[in-house]
Amino acid sequence: FDKDYLHLLLVAIICVSTDIGGYIFGNIFKGPKLTKISPKKTYSGVIGSFLLSLIFTYLFLEFSSNVQNFEFTIKMFLFILLVSLVSQIGDIIISYFKRKSKIKDTGALIPGHGGILDRIDGMIFAFPFSYVFFLNFNF
C-alpha cells in the first residue's frame, strides 16, 4: 500500500474505533455525564474511546502484512491518543452545532443513528489534524 493511503486508513481506524469504544463503554458503564452539549456522552465513554482506539490500531498494525512502515511505538501510542481526542472533540463540536440549529438527526440513512454526519463528525477534525501532524513530525 501507498504510505499516504495507510495514513488515511490509520486515522479512519482510530476514529471508527473511538466512536465504537465510546458507545459501548458509555452504555455498559454509564457514569457521570461529560457535557450538556452532548448529554449521552459520559466519562466512561471517553475512556472506552481511548482504550478501543489503542486496541484496534495495535491489532491492525500487528496483524496487517501491508503496514511495514508503521510500528506500535511510544510515538504511535501518543498519535493514537491525540487523534482519538481530536475525534471526540469534533464529535462534541458537531453536536453543539446540531443543538444550536435544533437538529437532532442529520439523516435517516442508518436507522437508529443520528445520520451520516454522526459517523464522520470526528473524522472531519481528525483528518486535518493528522495531516498537519504527519507533515510536522515526519511520521
Describe the structure.
70% of the residues lie in helices and 0% in strands. With 139 residues, it is mostly helical. The longest helix has 27 residues, at 3-29. It is globular. The two termini are 16 Å apart.
**Count of alpha and pi helical runs:** 4
Radius of gyration: 15 Å
User: Mean pLDDT score, rounded?
Assistant: 87
Estimate the helix proportion, in percent: 55-70%
- From the N-terminal CA to the C-terminal CA, the straight-line distance is 16 Å
**Spans of 5+ residues with little confidence (pLDDT < 50)?**
none
Class from helix and strand fractions: mainly alpha
Note the topology.
Elements: H1 3-29, H2 43-63, H3 74-100, H4 116-137
Helix pairs in contact: 1-2, 1-3, 1-4, 2-3, 3-4
Brief overview, please?
This protein has helices at residues 3-29, 43-63, 74-100, 116-137.
Keywords:
139 residues; mainly alpha; 70% helix; 0% strand; globular
